[in-house]
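WARN no homologs supplied; continuing
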Amino acid sequence: MTQLLKGKKGIIFGALDEQSIAWKVAQHAHAEGAVFVLTNAPIAMRMGEINKLAEQCNSSIIPADATSDEDLTKLFTEAQTILGGKLDFVLHSIGMSPNVRKAKPYTDLNYDFFHKTLDVSAMSLHRVLQSAYKLDALNDWASVVALTYIAAQRTFPDYSDMAEAKAMLESIARSFGFHYGKAKKVRVNTISQSPTWTTAGSGVPGFKEFFNYADTMAPLGNASADDCAKYVLSLFSDYTRMVTMQNLFHDGGFSMMGINASLVAPKAE
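OK structure emitted
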């Protein structure tokens, strides 16, 4: 290993199980010399296997609801105590839609659910950044990365209100990226990842069919969770110090495609 992140300290949100991108990020960050705390909402922690990951990475776990300012203040304060100083990176890998879980049609959304989707999946990034900003918890040139999806720009009907959440998430990264960059040289970016076989992703209706479609459309095929984790690490590293306020596509080229002949059935003679 190159020890790309040796000496760097951080927080990783959202490692649920071995399929999750955040889980892969934690494994690679540990291998590259980083130290960090793991966090997730208490209900998600009961559903997942985060204790196993913490043992692998020699990391502490601090439960935190990312929609709670109080929890986030406690998280950043305790993380600095455990790790021995300010932080160098944060991964935001958080997303949930009650409307999708309840299979509500987009034309008949429950608006209380919609508010919850936005609060958990998008506003939580603002809360994370604002909490860190007020506590001065991040070192100069620290890096914050949030995971997003191309439905923020394109229409994917079954993605439902998560599309609005991802659009809001990306806007927050740009807006807060300006303020944090001016104040502390902190970088804030989003990574727009391929459809990925995770617990969250595979819960979207029609996911299998779309996964196969995207895999055929993209010249390189779909990017795996493991490859995405490596890309995240590059943004945590000092090699990307001047990259901020960007939405970076990590999708095998899917986002730039119009048509791929592999998807077009030949005409019958």
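DSSP finds nine helices and seven strands in the chain.
OK
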